[in-house]
Write a sequence for this structure.
C-alpha cells in the first residue's frame, strides 16, 4: 500500500477484555514501531521490531501488553485484560532506513 | 536519558503571518536527529522537517524552517506565511540511535497551533 494502515480505527472494550490492534507497514520497511499516545500528550514508545525480531520492548507498560511480527511484515499489538488506563491512541510507524518514520492513522482504544 | 520539552501548550497566529514554536532537548550524545511532526485532528502524524545534529546549516522545507542551536540544545520551528491548513498539534521529537538510524523517537508534549483567518 501507499502508507501505513492500522485497524480498527476505533475500538471500545469493556474492562477485562482482550484486544488486538493491527498494523500494516509500508511494503519493504524493515523497522516497525508502536507508540501509545494518551489524550493531550505526545506519543510514547512501546516497542520496536527489525523484521520479525523484537529488539526493544522496554516501553511496554506491563506484561499485559504483547506485540508480534511473525513474518516481518504485519504486526499485532495485543492487550490482555484491558484496564481504563489503557485508553489511548495506539500509533504504528514504519521506517525504511533513512531515519524517517512513517506513521499510520492510529487506533483509538476506549476501555469502559 | 534524553528528554524533549515544548514549553508552549498553545499558540495562535494570524493567517499569512509568521509564528515560531519552541523546543528544547537534553542529551549527552553528539550526533543525533531532531524532527518536527504535525498531527491534524485526523491523528495522522506527518513529518514537517528534520535536522541532523552534525549539520550546522538550519533545515528548510518551503514555508517551514528551523533554528537549530546545538550548544543551547534548542530546536525551534518557524512557519512563514501561515495558512489555515497549518492548524494542528506540532510535536518536536528526538531520535534515539542505539541501533544506528533505527532508534525510537522521544516526543515533546506538543504545541497546539491555531490559525486565525
Amino acid at each position: 500500500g501507499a502508507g501505513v494502515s492500522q485497524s480498527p480505527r476505533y475500538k471500545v472494550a469493556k474492562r477485562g477484555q482482550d484486544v488486538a490492534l493491527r498494523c500494516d507497514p509500508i511494503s519493504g520497511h524493515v523497522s516497525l514501531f508502536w507508540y501509545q499516545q494518551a489524550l493531550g500528550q505526545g506519543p510514547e514508545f512501546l516497542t520496536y521490531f527489525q523484521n520479525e525480531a523484537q529488539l526493544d520492548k522496554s516501553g511496554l507498560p506491563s506484561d499485559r501488553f504483547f506485540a508480534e511480527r511473525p513474518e516481518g511484515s504485519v504486526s499485532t499489538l495485543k492487550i490482555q485484560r484491558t484496564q481504563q488506563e489503557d485508553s489511548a491512541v495506539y500509533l504504528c510507524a514504519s521506517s525504511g532506513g533513512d531515519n524517517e518514520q512513517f506513521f499510520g492513522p492510529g487506533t483509538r482504544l476506549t476501555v469502559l | 536519558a534524553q528528554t524533549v520539552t515544548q514549553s508552549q501548550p498553545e499558540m495562535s497566529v494570524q493567517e499569512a503571518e509568521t509564528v515560531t514554536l519552541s523546543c528544547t532537548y537534553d542529551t549527552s550524545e553528539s550526533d543525533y536527529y531532531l524532527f518536527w511532526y504535525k498531527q491534524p485532528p485526523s491523528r495522522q502524524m506527518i513529518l514537517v522537517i528534520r535536522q541532523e545534529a552534525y549539520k550546522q546549516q538550519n533545515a528548510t522545507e518551503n514555508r517551514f524552517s528551523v533554528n537549530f542551536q546545538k550548544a543551547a540544545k534548542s530546536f525551534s520551528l518557524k512557519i512563514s506565511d501561515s495558512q489555515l491548513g497549518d492548524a494542528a498539534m506540532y510535536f518536536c521529537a528526538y531520535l534515539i540511535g542505539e541501533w544506528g538510524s533505527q532508534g525510537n523517537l522521544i516526543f515533546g508534549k506538543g504545541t497546539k497551533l491555531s490559525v486565525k483567518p
